[in-house]
UniProtKB/TrEMBL annotation:
This is Inositol-1-monophosphatase. Coiled coil: none annotated. Its EC number is 3.1.3.25. Its cofactor is Mg(2+). The keyword Metal-binding applies. InterPro entries: IMPase, Inositol_monoP_metal-BS, Inositol_monophosphatase-like, Inositol_monophosphatase_CS, Inositol_monophosphatase_SuhB. Pfam families: Inositol_P. Keywords: Hydrolase, Magnesium, Metal-binding. It comes from Belliella aquatica. The lineage of its organism: Bacteria, Pseudomonadati, Bacteroidota, Cytophagia, Cytophagales. The keyword Metal-binding applies. It catalyses: a myo-inositol phosphate + H2O = myo-inositol + phosphate. Belongs to the inositol monophosphatase superfamily.
């Protein structure tokens, strides 16, 4: 019988260890060491080495688990348990010295996320959740905001950097939200966006063209903090469906209605 609370404690320690490595490397990072995986899709040795640290240690925590990893260190999806890892969510921020980037580790059991850890490297904030046990930041319980409506909310989003086929619709949505909310913020890390929704700093977040490792951990943390998470059709395909809306329940509902009129028409 796997004790997920013990696995969680070990995962938190591993995320912090990887975060310490990332923080140290940022102090003398050389822009010449940046590579491009695709259009505006950047990676560095820091991402790769951090992922190796995480995969190596998680392999010992739960030897029977498979892996989905951003940098391809190890890929084994057909397992009862699967780790979903982004070693450095917010790579572009990291490269440019903007202090918003995270280590994100989710654990999936039978296609359901059951554990999530996001370590925000710069603020030393460790967000985490076990399914059914609430959400926490540095051992303090967290909860989504009490904002009653979209008009009283602050919304986080992300901008596409390669998938531009629906950019006009996306800009139309942002135009609407600028007029119907307290404003929009683009932090540059989906993991941070989700955790900021979970602890009430943001009231909702939406984005498309995402990968499972961007949202696996953070989506569970939002849900365990009392929030609602769906895809753009209000369904549950937000881990692998490449689109997500997360927020407290009243703001999520209003945000989805505005988005649905434009995106899904």
């Amino acid at each position: 019988m796997i004790d997920l609370s013990q696995v969680l404690d070990q995962t938190k320690s591993i995320a912090k260890e990887a975060g310490a490595f990332i923080r140290k490397e940022r102090q003398h990072f050389d822009l010449k060491k940046v590579e491009e995986k695709g259009l505006n899709d950047l990676v560095s040795y820091v991402d790769k080495e951090a992922e190796k640290i995480i995969v190596d240690k998680l392999s010992k925590v739960l030897p029977e688990a498979g892996f989905i990893t951003e940098e391809g260190t190890r890929e084994e999806e057909n397992k009862n348990y699967t780790w979903i890892i982004d070693p450095l969510d917010g790579t572009t921020n990291f490269i440019h010295g903007i202090p918003v980037f995270c280590v994100s580790i989710g654990l999936m059991k039978d296609n359901e996320i059951v554990l999530g850890v996001v370590y925000e490297v710069n603020l030393h904030e460790c967000f985490y959740a076990l399914k059914g046990h609430g959400a926490f930041c540095n051992d303090t319980p967290i909860h989504v905001s009490a904002a009653p409506s979209l008009s009283q909310s602050l919304i986080a989003t992300g901008f596409p950097y390669s998938a531009f086929a629906q950019i006009d619709e996306y800009l139309e949505i942002m135009k609407v939200l600028m007029q119907k909310s307290h404003g929009l913020r683009r932090l540059g890390s989906a993991a941070a966006d989700l955790c900021y929704v979970a602890c009430g700093r943001m009231d909702a977040y939406f984005e498309y063209n995402l990968n499972s490792y961007d949202v696996a951990a953070g989506s569970l943390i939002v849900q365990e903090a009392g929030g609602k998470v769906t895809d753009f059709k209000k369904g549950d395909d937000f881990i692998f469906g490449r689109e997500i809306i997360a927020g407290n329940k009243p703001v999520h509902e209003e945000l989805w209605k505005e988005l649905d009129q434009i995106w899904n028409k």
